[in-house]
Amino acid sequence: xxxxxxxxxxxxxxxxxxxxxxxxxxxxxxxxxxxxxxxxxxxxxxxxxxxxxxxxxxxxxxxxxxxxxxxxxxxxxxxxxxxxxxxxxxxxxxxxxxxxxxxxxxxxxxxxxxxxxxxxxxxxxxxxxxxxxxxxxxxxxxxxxxxxxxxxxxxxxxxxxxxxxxxxxxxxxxxxxxxxxxxxxxxxxxxxxxxxxxxxxxxxxxxxxxxxxxxxxxxxxxxxxxxxxxxxxxxxxxxxxxxxxxxxxxxxxxxxxxxxxxxxxxxxxxxxxxxxxxxxxxxxxxxxxxxxxxxxxxxxxxxxxxxxxxxxxxxxxxxxxxxxxxxxxxxxxxxxxxxxxxxxxxxxxxxxxxxxxxxxxxxxxxxxxxxxxxxxxxxxxxxxxxxxxxxxxxxxxxxxxxxxxxxxxxxxxxxxxxxxxxxxxxxxxxxxxxxxxxxxxxxxxxxxxxx
Amino acid sequence: xxxxxxxxxxxxxxxxxxxxxxxxxxxxxxxxxxxxxxxxxxxxxxxxxxxxxxxxxxxxxxxxxxxxxxxxxxxxxxxxxxxxxxxxxxxxxxxxxxxxxxxxxxxxxxxxxxxxxxxxxxxxxxxxxxxxxxxxxxxxxxxxxxxxxxxxxxxxxxxxxxxxxxxxxxxxxxxxxxxxxxxxxxxxxxxxxxxxxxxxxxxxxxxxxxxxxxxxxxxxxxxxxxxxxxxxxxxxxxxxxxxxxxxxxxxxxxxxxxxxxxxxxxxxxxxxxxxxxxxxxxxxxxxx
Lengths: 451, 288
Prior knowledge:
- The complex is a heterodimer of chains A (451) and B (288).
- Chain A has 451 residues and is of the alpha/beta class.
- Chain A has helices at residues 2-22, 75-94, 119-131, 144-156, 191-200, 214-229, 248-257, 268-280, 323-329, 338-349, 355-374, 379-388, and strands at 32-33, 45-47, 58-68, 98-99, 104-114, 137-139, 161-163, 179-181, 205-211, 233-240, 261-265, 287-291, 309-313, 332-333, 390-393, 396-399, 416-422, 428-434.
- Chain B is built from 11 helices and 2 strands; from the N terminus they run ααααββααααααα.
């Protein structure tokens, strides 16, 4: 009896480990998630009465397939990305769609599923989106890890995938030709932060502590040589598992290393936990920059633990890009202004947009521009339009690498450094502190010691 | 020298955390010891304890430690309910039946929890201060949690050894048929035991919520730790579970001083397999 109990017990623990790695509900049948944007048309093709001279109006609904993490570790940022995409879809459909020269009116419909923040689930669902739902174009899931899984399926099936919320570089350096990246690549993520540190404190001792996932590791791989080339001493480099809850031992290591600056983090759950424990343990750092988490509007829920924490941001409303900026750079401006986008988003959700929202919206905007430029929804023509694209939007510059070595990698978009500071009313607000020419506040350096 | 300093700073923290791990494992091992049921709903119940603290703190402004009382009562009642609905009918069936029954409860709680509470992280914004002890920074929340865990362990010990229902529980654990022949109401005692096990899980969750953010899936990792602690401390030995928890907490404090944090689960579960191989009754002996 006892022996059989032990056997069962051992099997259970192993199963538990496997299940926890795979995420919840991996065996459930996928249920389509209702898109927030209204469906444009019921029938895929609807004949319109022909005008005398103009080409016959034909309405075509293009299906955009994507998964979102409604549950699991990527939920917070993924939902925001999808909210942005849905806003774009709602706006373009409400405006009557895209009108092509042959009379076709292109409208959009979303086909989406909950990927549960699970890579295996992502591959299963993207296969389904392509083969069963006949998605015309794909948008990536949120996070580099999930996007890497989805990109294999997109590439195998030759489907164009606009990748939002996926900064890691490697997926574009393996011969893929169907992926087009919106985010500044991970290897360049913390470059602006290092540039800022160079002016603030060239003697800073840096600890790099990061989540052990594709994105954060890619960021660190790009960061290390840049720090070295700028003469910074890295006194600690440490990775941690994505589900780490207790950062006490890591913080003790940071303190013991003599670091004055911490660069690292990963995603929302670990980053917010890390920030809270740094504050509780009075780590005494002069500057803390974490990936992703501080860019979310939930971050101030940490209270004073959020004060002074900085992040590299793909976009900030207070430093949104403008048509004037595009004119100076000699680039074509496309899409709404940041203020219009933010107002529409707030009207839809009651929340202020973060860069994840902006990324989701811009993913749709880029596809819209490519269809307009191609004057077609033919995938090859749209792909050619994406490869030729060199535009400026409220989100920043969009241009893709077209070399075989890094096809689809984003080469135009720039990041800013944002930091949580207190305004005159004592409320936490996210200020842009670098680059200096777009900064809305001076850097809080060193950050105030916890009381 | 630097590593020794890190070790000295991290070890007290690990020990304090170990008390809470021990409390969580005690609930699992109590149920196992009394009725040979592996409670796979243990993790979600830990998570419900976390949410209990969160809602009592944020909605009723109840101090998290005062909130332990309603959380404990709710945990006890929930356990009795789970026993009556899902476990009692399969208590004498092969082990697989009770495993599936508690796994179903696990899935129901996670499913409902995900639908209602989502999987976004929740945070109890509560601090009990901190103080320096040499190179170590001790958090008030962890210190209080360790004290509460010790109180609950002492209370459980007294209950099992000094009260009539406690003695009944031990009698049923020892030999259910003989206990029934002596007039012990075994069904009620089994329900009470299951309730006590879930109460300990809920209380440990309530304590963990004071120092880590959480969501409905967060109990899973503590359930796995409880399995390891169960093996370390001895299967069915609730007091041994506390010591098992302390050992695990110390391991979590020691390893990061010498290796990367990501090695912690590798070594923890390596130890689990090793103990199963060389001393399957646990370091402190299994239930006799």
